[in-house]
Specification:
The complex is a heterodimer of chains A (240) and B (632). Chain A contains 5 helices and 12 strands. Chain A has helices spanning 18-31, 75-85, 105-108, 123-135, 181-189, and strands spanning 2-9, 48-50, 59-68, 90-98, 111-117, 140-145, 148-153, 158-164, 167-173, 200-210, 213-216, 222-224. In chain A, strands 1, 2, 3, 4, 5, 8, 9, 10, 11 and 12 form a 10-stranded mixed beta sheet that branches. Chain A has a two-stranded antiparallel sheet with strand order 6-7. In chain A, strand 8 (158-164) and strand 9 (167-173) form a beta hairpin. Chain A starts with a strand and ends in a 16-residue tail after the last strand. With 632 residues, chain B is α/β, with parallel strands linked by helices. Helix content of chain B is 34%, strand content 14%. Chain B is built from 21 helices and 19 strands. Chain B has helices at residues 13-16, 56-59, 63-73, 88-97, 126-135, 178-194, 198-206, 286-290, 299-313, 331-342, 358-367, 385-390, 397-409, 428-446, 477-491, 505-515, 521-529, 543-552, 557-561, 582-595, 612-616; strands spanning 46-52, 78-84, 115-119, 151-155, 171-173, 211-212, 217-221, 227-232, 241-242, 270-273, 275-276, 295-296, 317-321, 348-350, 375-381, 414-421, 453-460, 497-501, 576-577. In chain B, the strands form 6 sheets. Chain B has a 6-stranded mixed beta sheet with strand order 2-1-3-4-5-6. In chain B, helix 13 (397-409) runs parallel beside helix 14, helix 14 (428-446) packs parallel to helix 15 and helix 17 crosses helix 18. Classes of the chains: A alpha+beta (240), B alpha/beta (632). The interface between A and B is medium-sized, with 30 and 30 residues.
């Protein structure tokens, strides 16, 4: 039985690398005593596969993984057991069974929604920078690649961008390599000089692009580009 | 009336968080691991910061720290948190951003704690210890500390000669820490309640069995520079501080909940100490000498600990730890039971025993029923039978070859053999014997598979305090290089033999710190000031820094390392009583170097009066039946 999960990586877990994260998953699966399937071969590994790695230091409520079980499991009970076994900062938010003909998980993740949380007092500058960025034909920023800086235009990958208060929500289409929040910040900074960097970037969700938003990969729930009401700011910086 | 000082300290997390992505492996600094205990320091009477002064990935798995962490945290009104030495990139950031040394549980600065206790498994952590204190804004010299400063404590095997650190520490724990820390904790609680001044606190602590307060003792030197002795400077203090010994390991089943790291460490497994102490009597081995007598944990307790420890951690490996795990009296039944319990699961079992015999292979076979037979490790330690008799490693060449044969025949593909060079009375023939033995084992391996491999690992011997070799001279690094060259030339060209060896230079500093006296402390401080850090890491260790520090402080390295001591010379660690009779140690040394006489294991042969059991009023705790030599 195959299942796909959407999970969150927040708080201190933001500083755990992709390789270490795989180990945390393996341990939690063992601790939760779930019948995970193991790969064949000399050193068998639990069958868990992850989609693209979250850059170190960033938070997410939109991470996805695919699990293969050796026996059928009750998904609600499995989520509860996993969440009890995870260290604080790692939590499964939703799960869905994947049938035999289901498309590959990566194909479901065509668009990414990011929230960039800026320091208080930047609302006006951000609003104007986002308006300018949306009106511009190109958004060229420098990208480090193998020790060299190359210029890339973010515009073709940009699905939409909106600002409210000190938060910038940006949706990008999943191209390789995908534009990073740090690059979006660079682009905004070119329209509003001396914009302090965002205190935190959160990968909100991933899914299929839709007009003015995206459809979350597992639930199909609509994630709007510009919410009608302001969202609570996460408390990452206040936690110890 | 209470005069508890209201000490409030802010978490350093808000300072730390923005810089974490600028350092390597930031998960080392965030805490948040599985099975940790996080208390509010406002809700406790006493607080401890337990530090392993090396990088997180080395320190986190340490058993000693985890045991004491749990023992202390089980007290509702006591909090213990952990800290590790920052990697140099993180140190630079901490100094630049003015982030003090912090704990991982609440990210509190070092000065928030009543006690800062360092676990010293080896000498290479000494400069890290100073660096941690310095980053923690605690005065490096005990004499400069005030009532507002934490107490600085050390324990662990290297603390059996604390003199090179004496000026920097307030309290030394000699021996087992479990009961010791609880008694110290009670003194600390009284300190806070009664509002004692620092000298009073230290005086109370000096009354705890196993506690050595260096400030209350003073070394005296003869005109030729040799030590005359280290003497108490206060009334009612013992001339020799007796070590602390926990007598029933079943009463101390720790760690019950192993801390599960978020990032990779050197040992990711649930480890249980199956016994403490060893009486094999290997003459080079400090651990075997200072942890006597043998105290076994029962099979039942071990099985319970493993079952719970695996379930509550999610670890996929279990380690059965001790100084020679195959020597546990119930080891066969234990391995069988555990192999049954975990057969068909992903849980693997490991027995880090290096005993050279077929029984060890049998146990390893049992633990790997599922078939993963990769490498087995043995420690013949020396290349010739004569040399092995000198060090009392009772293994014949026939034993070694028979053991190798059994291992290869049972499907093991790779044997690792540990050896030392620079041993007392060693000749070039003994050194070449290492190569010869390695090649013979390779020959055995070839009969069972063309690709079977043998790794010969060679380290330089460093004489350690409280061992029969504590009096002897250490080889110069150049001499070790020459001996290594003999081995290299003999084995080069054999594709199945892989030779591994260590740089001899760090051994010089290890030897200096192992047998140094209080005058060596100046060199430790100077080396720290000159930038010495992480001395156990090849990429950080800098020999020139240490030699410059010694030169500037008038410490003659050769005098400490290469000088043979007489029986009547006072040694810097004589006032720490490991239980061993100095007379017995000397006799054993003489037996070794004059006639290469072997000594049996006193677990199953008659007592040879090393002094430990009557001195501590404890006996071996084992179910081994004594073997009495048949008459004639």
């Amino acid at each position: 039985m195959r299942a796909r999960v959407r999970y969150a990586k927040t708080g201190k877990l933001r500083f755990v690398s992709a390789i270490d994260l795989g180990r945390l998953w393996e341990r939690a699966l063992r601790k939760a005593d779930l019948p995970i399937a193991y790969s064949e071969g000399f050193s068998p590994h639990p069958k868990v596969s992850f989609t693209d790695a979250l850059p170190l230091g960033l938070a997410s409520t939109g991470e996805y993984a695919e699990l293969t079980f050796a026996a059928p499991v009750d998904l609600d009970a499995a989520i509860a057991a996993l969440n009890a076994a995870f260290p604080e900062g790692l939590a499964v938010l939703a799960a869905a069974e994947a049938g035999d003909g289901a498309p590959r998980l990566a194909r479901l993740l065509q668009a990414v929604c990011w929230d960039l949380f800026y320091p208080l007092g930047q609302a006006a500058a951000l609003g104007s920078a986002v308006r300018s960025a949306n009106a511009a034909d190109v958004l060229v920023v420098g990208r480090e690649r193998k020790g060299e800086t190359v210029e890339v235009d973010l515009k073709p990958a940009l699905h939409g961008m909106a600002a409210w208060e000190e938060t910038v929500r940006v949706m990008v289409r999943h191209v390789e390599p995908p534009p990073r929040p740090s690059e979006v910040h660079l682009a905004l900074n070119s329209f509003a000089l001396h914009l302090p960097g965002p205190a935190l970037a959160l990968r909100v969700a991933q899914g299929q692009p839709a007009p003015d938003g995206l459809l979350e990969a597992l639930s199909g729930e609509f994630v709007p580009l510009a919410p009608s009401m302001s969202l609570p700011r996460p408390k990452e910086r206040a936690t110890t | 009336m209470t005069t508890v000082t209201a000490r409030t300290f802010e978490s350093v997390w808000p300072l730390l968080e923005p810089v974490l992505t600028t350092v390597r492996k930031p998960a080392r600094y965030v805490g948040g691991e599985g099975n940790i205990t996080v208390k509010d320091l406002a809700d406790v009477d006493t607080s401890w910061l337990l530090i392993y002064p090396d990088a997180y990935e080395v320190g986190q798995p340490n058993q000693g720290v985890q045991i004491l962490y749990e023992v202390l945290n089980e007290r509702p009104r006591t909090a213990a948190e952990r800290g590790y030495a920052p990697w140099p990139d993180m140190e630079a950031v901490m100094r630049r951003e003015e982030i003090p040394f912090f704990s991982l549980e609440n990210h509190l600065p070092m000065r928030a704690f009543d006690v800062v206790a360092f676990s010293l498994a080896a000498e290479v952590g000494y400069t890290n210890l100073l660096n941690c204190l310095d980053l923690g804004r605690v005065p490096l010299l005990a004499a400069d500390r005030t009532d507002e400063d934490p107490l600085v404590m050390i324990g662990g095997h290297a603390a059996f000669n604390p003199e090179p650190l004496a000026p920097f520490v307030d309290v030394v724990c000699a021996g087992d820490g479990e009961e010791f820390v609880l008694e110290i904790d009670a003194v600390i609680a009284s300190w806070r309640q009664a509002g004692w001044r620092r000298p009073e606190v230290l005086a109370h602590i000096a009354g705890v069995e196993g506690a050595y307060v260096p400030a209350f003792y003073e070394p005296e030197y003869a005109s030729d520079g040799r030590l005359r002795g280290t003497f108490p400077r206060r009334a009612h203090l013992p001339y020799r501080v007796p070590k602390r010994t926990v007598s029933d390991l079943d009463r101390w089943p720790y760690p019950k909940k192993a801390i599960v790291p978020l990032t990779e460490t050197v040992h990711e497994r649930y480890s249980v100490e199956i016994f403490r102490g060893c009486t094999r009597g290997c003459r080079f081995c400090q651990a075997g000498m200072i942890t006597r007598p043998v105290r076994e944990r029962s099979k039942e307790t071990i099985k319970e600990m493993v079952a719970e420890g695996v379930a509550n951690s999610g670890f996929e490996e279990v380690g059965l730890l001790s100084l020679s795990s195959a020597d546990h009296s119930e080891i066969q039944g234990l391995c069988g039971d555990l192999a049954d319990a975990y057969e068909g699961t992903a849980t693997s079992l490991s027995l880090p025993s290096t005993r050279v015999d077929a029984f060890n292979v049998t146990l390893a076979d049992e633990l790997t029923r599922n078939g993963r037979r990769t490498g087995l490790t043995f420690a013949p330690e020396a290349g010739t039978e004569r040399m092995r008799k000198v060090i009392n490693k009772m293994v014949s060449e026939a034993d070694m070859l028979r053991t190798a044969e059994t291992a290869f025949a049972n499907g093991w593909r790779h044997l690792k053999l540990y050896f030392m060079i620079g041993l007392p009375t060693e000749t070039d023939e003994d050194v070449l014997g290492i190569a010869e033995l390695g090649l013979k084992v390779v020959e055995v391996g070839r009969q069972y598979g063309r690709k079977n491999k043998v790794t010969v690992s060679v380290g330089g011997f460093v004489p350690k305090p409280h061992t029969p070799f504590q009096w002897c001279a250490q080889d110069l690094p150049g001499e070790l290089e020459r001996k290594l060259g003999l081995i290299k030339r003999r084995v080069s060209g054999d594709r199945n033999l892989n030779l591994r060896y260590h740089d001899p230079l760090p051994g010089v500093v290890e030897g200096l710190l192992a047998r140094g006296d209080r005058r060596v402390a100046a060199a430790v401080l100077r080396a720290f000031e000159l930038g010495a850090r992480m001395d156990g890491w090849d990429e950080c260790f800098d020999y020139a820094t240490w030699m410059r520090a010694c030169a500037e402080t008038g410490v003659d390295v050769a005098w400490y390392c290469q000088r043979e001591r007489d029986e009547d010379e006072s040694l810097p660690w004589d006032h720490l009583d490991s239980g061993l009779e100095a007379g017995w140690l000397w006799k054993d040394y003489q037996d070794a170097v004059t006639r290469a006489a072997e000594l049996e294991d006193c677990r199953w042969t008659p007592c040879y009066d090393c002094g430990v059991c009557p001195g501590l009023d404890v006996q071996h705790q084992t179910r081994h039946l004594p073997i009495y030599a048949s008459p004639g």
